[in-house]
Amino acid sequence: MITGSLVALATPMHADGAIDWEAFARLIEFHIEAGTDGIVVAGTTGEASTLSFAEHCALVREAVALVRGRVPVIAGTGANATAEAVELTQAAKDAGVDACLLVSPYYVKPTQEGLYRHHRAIAEAVAIPQILYNVPGRTGVDLKPDTAVRLAGVPHVVGLKEAAGDLDRMRHLLQACPSDFAVYSGDDATACEAMLAGAKGDISVTANVAPKLMHQMCRAALAGDESAARAIDARLERLHRDLFIESNPIPTKWALMRMGLMGPGIRLPLTPLDPACHSRVADALEYAGITLC
Q1: Which architecture, in CATH terms, is 4-228?
Q2: Among residues 93, 116, 133, 200, which one is catalytic?
Q3: Is 100 strand, coil or helix?
Q4: Against a cut of 0.85, is the pTM above it?
Q5: CA–CA separation, 73 vs 47, rounded Å?
Q6: Residues with Cβ < 8 Å from 230, sequence gap 6 or more?
Q7: What is the pLDDT of residues 12-71, one digit of tens each?
Q8: Is 45 one of the annotated binding-site residues?
Q9: Rounded to an integer, what distance in angstroms lies between the CA atom of residue 47 and that of residue 221?
Q10: Is the dihedral angle over the CA atoms 241, 247, 253, 254 positive or is it negative?
């Protein structure tokens, strides 16, 4: 079972929007050295919705090659069409990833039965560990706890990233799901409490800029050390909030640029961080002890 601080990795880009492969390699090493427990590539923070199919697959292959088995690699392979999600998941398996992360189909607003059949079809088509991803604030559809529990019985469906930010819901899921089904936080602001309640880790945006602290916080929370986990999390609380001052990954990519880890590139329809927000994100970084260039 994959546990700990799992970074939802941003995708570095040049000013013209082309993927910056050199910066991508630097980011991977930055996370390995800082203790990040797993790399999640081509997810929401990685701007997967703006990548072509070829770019998506190339990014996944390159991540596996760069990581070289040192930590698990999880590939985002969700899509709003089931056939496309199957194709992406098969490509990720062929690339050698450890697991796939499948966001609920967005925009089309399937029923709960549709969500169940969608994920079951992918799991039946591709024999690789698959983590469900519920983020209703972005997809417009909510994978209900009862549906998640139902899917937990499907072979190859091994976990759930729950990003609704509702701790009562998280506690219910932890009680209702089988013990070998991993429930992860997908909401940095509540991740510490979720792990103290039994979640297996955090698929994290904050880890992009504060990987060592996120690793330490997750390790303490998973060990049940409440005082240590909450003390570390207190240093990160402004990042948990202010990295979402505009749509993710806009603030995160600006922060990584200020840290000297990537250039300014971001793809439309996302735009660079509004200058009015710069000082707030910079203050959050400095509060966490992060040095800016």
Answers
A1: Alpha-Beta Barrel (3.20)
A2: 133
A3: strand
A4: yes
A5: 17
A6: 192
A7: 999 999 999 999 999 999 999 999 999 999 999 999 999 999 999 999 999 999 999 999
A8: yes
A9: 29
A10: negative
